[in-house]
Amino acid sequence: MESRPPIKKIQDIFKILPHRYPFLLVDKVLESDGRSHMVAIKNVTINEHFFEGHFPEHPVMPGVLVVEAMAQVGVLLLFGADEDREKKLVYFSGIDNCRFRQPVIPGDQLRIEITVIKQRGRYFKMRGEACVEGALVAEAELSCTVVERS
Tens digit of pLDDT for each residue in 52-65? Predict the structure, then answer.
């Protein structure tokens, strides 16, 4: 059963993620159960800074940034309902089974789905999938640990 996400607008995303332009790669949360599953979008536009050099004649969103977008949605999932999130950080520790299926180009809308597949204490393993118009363009398993800020 889906519930309304606690993250309703970009200002809510700003409260959770420290990223800002040009490195913020999440525009909106569509759905979340608040614990183990979230869906968000990234609108890919031609004015993105990375298209200047990747590649000017054939613009393609770098795959590493697609994975970074998945990671950012993962942090939103883990911290969205956490009242003490200002006291914590997420350290990503691994990317497994990463595959890129199709290029992401200007005009695409990435639909990013993150699901927690394992949790042990402060350790999390999440599965991420990025789709464009229903077609899977990238997938990966992301590992991370939530730590207290010093």
Answer: 999 989 999 999 99
